[in-house]
Amino acid sequence: xxxxxxxxxxxxxxxxxxxxxxxxxxxxxxxxxxxxxxxxxxxxxxxxxxxxxxxxxxxxxxxxxxxxxxxxxxxxxxxxxxxxxxxxxxxxxxxxxxxxxxxxxxxxxxxxxxxxxxxxxxxxxxxxxxxxxxxxxxxxxxxxxxxxxxxxxxxxxxxxxxxxxxxxxxxxxxxxxxxxxxxxxxxxxxxxxxxxxxxxxxxxxxxxxxxxxxxxxxxxxxxxxxxxxxxxxxxxxxxxxxxxxxxxxxxxxxxxxxxxxxxxxxxxxxxxxxxxxxxxxxxxxxxxxxxxxxxxxxxxxxxxxxxxxxxxxxxxxxxxxxxxxxxxxxxxxxxxxxxxxxxxxxxxxxxxxxxxxxxxxxxxxxxxxxxxxxxxxxxxxxxxxxxxxxxxxxxxxxxxxxxxxxxxxxxxxxxxxxxxxxxxxxxxxxxxxxxxxxxxxxxxxxxxxxxxxxxxxxxxxxxxxxxxxxxxxxxxxxxxxxxxxxxxxxxxxxxxxxxxxxxxxxxxxxxxxxxxxxxxxxxxxxxxxxxxxxxxxx
Length: 538
Prior knowledge:
This protein is mainly alpha-helical and 538 residues long. It folds into 2 domains: 395 residues, no CATH class; 103 residues, no CATH class. The protein has 23 helices and 5 strands. β4 and β5 form a beta hairpin. The longest helix has 30 residues. It is globular, with a radius of gyration of 27 Å. The N and C termini lie far apart (109 Å).
């Protein structure tokens, strides 16, 4: 009898203990699953693909303006055998876009697919990087927060260079930090991906900071001779990747490193808040011819801007990129990191990871702030924030109950996901969908003989959907000068909508097709929103 009671007693306790252990074991198995990063990336790909195809019908008037203005024409030129030299970006994205379009036959859809694939790669690479450098637990939660981040999601479904650049740059980090021992193979792959990052966006130059990590952090613990050799291998791989492009720029533009990104710095220093965006970029910017010209015009102001941007950009990152609910933990994590005296063991892979992100943050101090520029830093900020609870090398790790970290992290994840849904639900379909109606009307009602080759507007979207070349509305002050400009540049059509009226206020009367407009003939107009398609009379 006593034996039976013992069995019953133990029978009540043992299953409970097994249940608790099994739940913990299941959770640990999920986190430590070999393909956890790949699984999260694939899930993200499927969700974003479905959402994008359902809701993202037309590019927005924000960052996707560049897609229609520069990338699509660049892709078409590439497919026709000519590589266009852009003032501000490398040629890789339009080339990839053109190749994708051969498969999809729709440039906008190709751009969306490129973004979704690239965003999924960023998630995969980020998980693997954090797992190797910190822990599987930290990688799991940091990657989930990355995947839910509102800005990350927005620029995944947006057609543009942002996610392609981030995939290449994060891939560079992945191969650089892939092994704890020196691997020349991984170093060469990292160098090639770094060069491709540079060919996508020129701020990929920050990846050359790996040379500093190789030489002075030396977490591989190799001799100076091997450090120098490794630096040369990485640098050579990086440079050789974009050398053909440099030679082409040298022959066409007279500069191996041709680009005009110094004008972005000039705008930050001398244009912002003083003249309109159009006024600066289409008139004032021509007075600057080099980076030295910009810096030399007011060097103290340049230094002051860079120093001021340290705090300014960081605060904006916490507010706009991460959200202050995570931002407070980023600040706390930075404080704890400093108090933990990481410099006592600074020759570590973690130091290399921190420095690579700091190099990128430092490069962004030279230009005006945009949260999309900082997307690359989301995993870094998240690691700092969650490191308070999951980084075993920090002093608070053993002093806080493990459950607290899980609870707070889940709350942060829920807040991030909720904000992402709210944020993106108002943006994913914010493009001018009326252009689809105009496209269908134009194709049905305008005879082939009257279809135009060039259309004037403030944004290039209408040119894409009506299959015409884009002509930017000129900065003129009188109506006769406007019409003369159209005739001089062989413009066939003018599209005028609220975006044109807002940027060219002196011609707002063009929103009313019933008013007399000499030199123009009304083709079709819409009331909601108001928009008019005019034909330019010869």
